Known about the structure:
Blueprint: E1 2-3, E2 7-9, E3 12-20, E4 26-33, E5 39-43, H1 51-66, E6 77-80
Antiparallel strand pairs: 1-3, 2-3, 3-4, 4-5, 5-6
Amino acid sequence: MKTDKVIEYHGCEVRPVVTATGKGRYAAVAIVTDRADETRTLGVDREFATPQEARDEALELAVAWIQQRSVVSDRYVRRTGLPVSNCRPGAK
C-alpha cells in the first residue's frame, strides 16, 4: 500500500491510497477529511494497470464527491465521524 501526499481541495484534505492487487494491477481509494475532521473513504470500483492511473482516478473521484457531481454514488463512500460534511457546500 502506498499513500501519496495529502492534497487540499475546497477545504478538505484528500489522501489517495494505492494498493497492488497481487495480479500485477492496482486498486485505489481516496480518504477525504473535512474541516470538522469527518473522514470518508471513497473506493474506486475497478483495477488499474499502473499506480499512477489508480491514483489519478482516486483523486478524480474525491474531487467529484467534494463538488457533489452526480457521477459519485453513495455506495462508494464509507463514512466515519460526524454526519455533516463541512467541505461539501449544502451537505446535510
